[in-house]
Structures are given as structure tokens and as C-alpha cells.
Write a structure and sequence with these properties.
Layout: E1 2-4, H1 6-14, E2 20-24, E3 29-31, E4 37-43, E5 46-53, E6 56-63, E7 70-78, E8 81-89, E9 94-102
């Protein structure tokens, strides 16, 4: 399992919103569907991952960068599903506060998007 800075991961993720299969926290998960699209970026000064149908917000994860120590590349958890965890780490605890699954990893130059919904 490799790690990278949150800033590098977020910059890469914001360029690949349509490659998201699902995104979640320990409390909730947003899943992609054919009639939905993703927004990953800044909304009113806050980092967000949003799932949108037409012009209606269906779900939103507010990302607090102050909670994140680093991003962890979990790898291909299931066939065609590459997972990344945003880790909050203290002296006594380590928890994945956000998890993202995409159709490809960070090394693919030309992702195939074989299971992405656009």
C-alpha cells in the first residue's frame, strides 16, 4: 500500500470525477448510477464531492482537509474498482475518514473507463 499527500490526491481526483464508482465516509456512501454525475472540487470555499441528477443535488460529502494526514492507495479491492482512503492518524488511532473507488488507478495514462458512467 502506497501513500501520497492529500493535496496531490485531491488534484488528481478533481480531474477524474466521472471515473468515480462510489465515495463514502464511515457513516454514509454515495453510489454512481447511469443518470447521475459527480462534482469534485470547491463549492463556496468548501471541498466537496457531490452526486447530482440533472441540476439537483442527490448527495454530498464535505471533505475536511484538516482531518486528513495522508491519502492511501488501497489498490484494486474488486475487479475494476480501485480504492483510495483518506487517512486521519494520531498517536493512538488511524481511521479512513473518506474512501473513494474509481474505475482506474493513478498510473493509467489513458483510462479505459470500461465501467464508468458518463
Amino acid at each position: 500500500m502506497s501513500t501520497l499527500s492529500f493535496e496531490n490526491f485531491w488534484a488528481w481526483l478533481s480531474q477524474h470525477p466521472n471515473c468515480l464508482l462510489w465515495a463514502g465516509t464511515p457513516d454514509a456512501v454515495l453510489y454512481d448510477a447511469e443518470d447521475l454525475h459527480w462534482f469534485v472540487g470547491i463549492d463556496r470555499g468548501v471541498l466537496v464531492t457531490q452526486l447530482i441528477r440533472g441540476k439537483r443535488l442527490q448527495g454530498e460529502i464535505i471533505v475536511d482537509p484538516d482531518r486528513i494526514t495522508y491519502a492511501s492507495v488501497v489498490g484494486e479491492a474488486r475487479e475494476g474498482e480501485h480504492q483510495f482512503e483518506l487517512i486521519s492518524e494520531t498517536d493512538t488511532d488511524r481511521i479512513a475518514v473518506y474512501t473513494f473507488a474509481l474505475t482506474h488507478d493513478m498510473t493509467e495514462e489513458e483510462p479505459t473507463h470500461r465501467s464508468a458512467v458518463h
